Amino acid sequence: MFTGIVEELGEVTAVEDLGDAARFRLRGPVVTEGARHGDSIAVNGVCLTVVDHDGDSFTADVMAETLTRSSLGALAPGSRVNLERPTAVGGRLGGHLVQGHVDGVGTLTAREPSAHWELVTVSLPAHLARYVVEKGSITVDGVSLTVVEAGEEHFTISLIPTTLALTTLGHKQPGDPVNLEVDVIAKYVERMLGHRAAPATAGEESR
Predict the structure, then answer these.
(1) What confidence tens digit (pLDDT) does each residue in 31-41 have?
(2) Contact, 138 vs 157, CB < 8 A?
(3) CATH number of the domain that residue 164 is part of
(4) Are 83 and 41 contacting, i.e. CB atoms less than 8 angstroms apart?
(5) Are residues 70 and 119 in the same domain?
(6) What is the pLDDT at residue 87?
(7) Does pTM top 0.85 for this prediction?
């Protein structure tokens, strides 16, 4: 489990094509400190498993499903990525509950800079719109953010200077893809309410 508070702006140093998968080598001295084989590290909001690590870098295997359903398939050597280690039990929950399971890919469509912050608009896949609410939480490229405006096809977020300087969101341009993870609590509530509204079966009626 992650919190969406990015620890480090890392870099992809190599991508190896494995046919139905890819192996990434990523540089990140903060997140690799004390890392072990099998540990989890979120890369642009995607939970990956450490295969190997050496000095300030680690490798992770990414299967085809992840490459096609997230923006990781567009990464290349030199790409900058947001990195975060899982939160420790008893640690501070600085952002919100983030699983590292991307729900869809949006596209940054507009940036409106101001003196001390920037308003960013992101396109929203139709099947995710019902989970995004004004002032609710959303994860964009692994960054925990608050929704400013929620539309049927887009949402907006405000980025402070720290977020602009220390995450990929300060460098993304209109047309660039971003990984989206909606609030998991909303999905569980929808699932439970759906079961509650479902008609009882014959067996249930006889109890």
Answers:
(1) 999 899 999 99
(2) yes
(3) 2.40.30.20
(4) yes
(5) no
(6) 84
(7) yes
